Amino acid sequence: MSTAQDFSGPVGRGGVGEYNVDGTANREPRTANREPRTANREPRTANREPRTANREPRTANRDDPWATAPVRRRVLGVVRNLTALDRLADVLTVLADDFRVETRFTHAAGSEFDADLSGHFRRAGMHVVPWSQACGRNFDLAISPSGNGALHELDMPVLTLSHGAGHHKHLPSGRGFGPEVAGLAHEQLVRDGRVVPSVVCLSHRDQFELLARECPLAKDRAEVVGDPCFDRLRISTPSRQSYRNSLGTGDRELVLLASTWGPRALFGRAPELAADLVDALPARSHQVALVLHPNVWARHGPWQIRQWTDRARQAGLVLVPPEHGWKAALVAADTVVSDHGSLGMYAATLGKRLLLAEFGHREVVAGTPREELGRRAAYLERDRPLREQVERAAPVAGHAELVNAAFARPGGAASALRRVIYEQLGLAEPAWRAVARPLDPFVPE
């Protein structure tokens, strides 16, 4: 039986109560109508060194006498690459409007895809601290959308979560993809016999079985919170027309071509498909947009991506920038042509018409919803007329079942995540409801 705590309740089940001047909780009990946290579960402190001994009191601005805001806790966003930064944008919305909590960011070195990360920080206006400073005692919680990096060096509780649509892919390495599950592997979660994360967030209860298999030491750290990205996509559907206006779609059918990264990705196997679709679909009735995984942009560079797509862009292809826009473009799309990446999974669960042009079966963990998508979805045959296939595309059969298989209680991720984060911070939740935040419009390339 799964022992992961499931916090994926309905939207709006936020914390109640006041908070004291020193930031400690003065709150009503949280046990009503809730499963006991200790039932069938190992203690949360198992295999972990105490973190409270000889620790400074968590007081306001203890290291910054020049600060103005009444900060009580500091959160550290740990970023290895643009993919992680994008996921943090979904997660950190739950801290909005709380003057007690300040967030700063740090670059965790070691990713092969961290090109121009400092530029992304700068353009977003984020306060960045060097890793050496982040490893000190100036933060109360680190949030990392990756289990990779030297997280064991951080002297604070660490919360990890997936940077995609669940833990469905094998762990990549310089030699390809190994048998381990990315984000749940023992080598990512344990250092010197100690489980590093205080919390391992999962998007669905079924992933607990993967965690228990991959890293038994960490199974008592699991919290089922749902998927904040999926919730933002779904709640943004009423704004679909504004995103289409940003793309200049008008009344045309928007066909979104989406590729993950790596040699088995759509862009790696069929880089000419964007130009072929632009040629095959009349511009008066169709618009084609291209979304590439941020790792593709980081590895090859924006200039090279534009160089490779020059003819297609001259003919009308819209190139969606890596920093932002892919979510809004997905909401705006009528038909999606994708591969085994997260965007294809999100497209299927949103009920979009979907065709798979590639699918890296060896990269996908057996028995997961991502593997099921690879079996259920229709495939684009590039040796047949493309227009006919695009116009006949349909939503994946049983896509509602995929939603329930991939995401725990859709609509409740913001509430669940906020509850977990504030418990780690030792603060009462704000009085307002935690809800998914709609996406902003964007300007394409």
Characterization of the model:
The radius of gyration is 22 Å and the shape is globular. The protein has helices at residues 82-91, 117-124, 131-134, 186-189, 207-214, 228-235, 240-247, 266-269, 273-280, 294-300, 302-308, 310-314, 326-332, 342-349, 369-376, 386-391, 399-406, 413-425, and strands spanning 5-6, 18-19, 25-26, 73-79, 101-107, 141-144, 158-160, 170-173, 176-181, 190-191, 194-195, 199-202, 222-224, 253-259, 286-292, 318-319, 335-338, 353-356, 378-379. A hairpin with a 2-residue loop joins β10 and β11. α7 packs across α13 and α10 packs across α11. It folds into 2 domains: 5-231 and 407-425, Rossmann fold; 239-405, 3-Layer(aba) Sandwich (Rossmann fold), CATH 3.40.50. The protein has 18 helices and 19 strands. The chain starts with a strand and ends in a 20-residue tail after the last helix. The strands form 5 sheets. The protein has a 7-stranded parallel β-sheet with strand order 1-13-12-7-6-4-5, sandwiched between helices. It has a 6-stranded parallel β-sheet with strand order 16-15-14-17-18-19, sandwiched between helices. A two-stranded antiparallel ribbon has the order 2-3. The chain is α/β, with parallel strands linked by helices.
